[in-house]
Design goal:
The structure is a single chain. The protein is of the alpha+beta class. It has a single domain, classed as Alpha-Beta Plaits. The chain is built from 3 helices and 4 strands. The N and C termini lie far apart (31 Å).
Length: 84
């Protein structure tokens, strides 16, 4: 049981790339603005509009999602881990 808990904790401490995207964009590209990431105090990545956030930081992810929605966008996530 402890091993399972440890694996889940380790996985939650990884960082993921999040971004706001326009649902009407067929390629699902990130919105070209770092302001969404800066507003939630995420780590701005070199690719414009992408943000590195710890997977377990629900409050930042939720805030980013709300910021996207307030601007007619939706939250997107890249499956590749990032480093802040």
């Amino acid at each position: 049981m402890w091993l399972t808990l440890d694996r889940q904790t380790h996985r939650q401490d990884t960082f993921q790339t999040f971004f706001c995207k326009d649902l009407n964009d067929p390629k699902g590209r990130p919105a070209p603005s770092d302001n969404f990431c800066k507003a939630v105090k995420g780590a701005v990545l070199p690719s414009v509009g992408t943000c590195c956030i710890r997977s377990s930081d629900f409050n930042k992810i939720q805030s980013l999602s709300k910021g996207c929605a307030a601007n007619g966008l939706t939250l997107g996530m890249n499956q590749t881990p990032c480093s802040p």
